[in-house]
Amino acid sequence: MPILTDEQVDHYRDHGWVAPIDVLTADEAAALHRALVDAERAFPDDLHAGHRNNAHLVLPFLADLATHDVILDCVASLVDRPTSLLNSVLFIKEPDSAAWVSWHQDSTYMGLDSTDMVTAWLALTPSTTESGCVAMLPGSHTNGIRTHVDRYGPDNILTRGQHIDGIDEAAAVDVELRPGQMSLHHPHLVHCSRPNRTSGRRVGVAFQSYVGAGVRPSRGQHHVLQVGTQPVDQSFTVVPRPTGRCTTEGRAVRAAANAALSDVLYDGAEARRSY
After folding, report:
1. Is there a contact between 232 and 224 (Cβ–Cβ < 8 Å)?
2. pLDDT, tens digit, for every residue of 153-207?
3. What topology is assigned to 6-265 in CATH?
4. What is the C-alpha to C-alpha distance for residues 107 and 187, in angstroms, rounded to an integer?
5. pTM for this structure?
6. Are 115 and 234 in contact (CB under 8 A)?
7. Rounded to whole angstroms, how far apart are CA atoms 52 and 62?
8. Do strands 191-193 and 101-104 pair parallel, antiparallel, or not at all (unpaired)?
9. CA 57, CA 232: separation in Å to the nearest integer?
């Protein structure tokens, strides 16, 4: 059953996001963070800085998080009969690093025919202004897709370094989250995040995005994880949940999903990064 209040739903409709939403306790978030750090140490080739897409396909605890009842119930307040999760990204900024995310809209290159979807961004460590939390531009989801310019750069975490010029940054709102809290934002919402200027890692995971039953691909193949009981349309490729950490099967599933995602995201681009 949806658990967002009417006020939270109205805030999402008006502003393009809603936060903070409590998903995990502080202890649960800390345990997940430890599990992730342990997996990074055990499988460095699978989870290094250039290989953080779709980790939920090789780490069971991230697949469990992606299908957490609180997340899915909140998503169901905003999306019509959510069926599947497109992909995930581990957004990790090392201490006092230059890594950042430029102003952009998620749906620009996603290759889908609808905006009936929502991105969940969940913090595993404190996500603050100082550590480079997500900054959101209120109401920017109501004006369609803006022009993006590809500006590849070593410190820009985004695939193409896609960037929107002319943003009134003074109007942006820093969405700070405690570990275990999440934000939900619309695929057309303009947002960014700045460098981490603290002495600790800033770790978050974005489930990008949960799609409704009526959404269809407009280009490319999309490998998705089924969520809930709603059937997934056959135009999507449904992938299995991982059975263990970075198994041979899981790695193959993730590699195929990342290759398909890369083809969609880099459609028309002059260059692409490897995953």
Report:
1. yes
2. 777 777 666 778 888 999 999 999 999 999 999 999 999 999 999 999 999 999 9
3. Jelly Rolls (2.60.120)
4. 5
5. 0.94
6. no
7. 12
8. antiparallel
9. 17
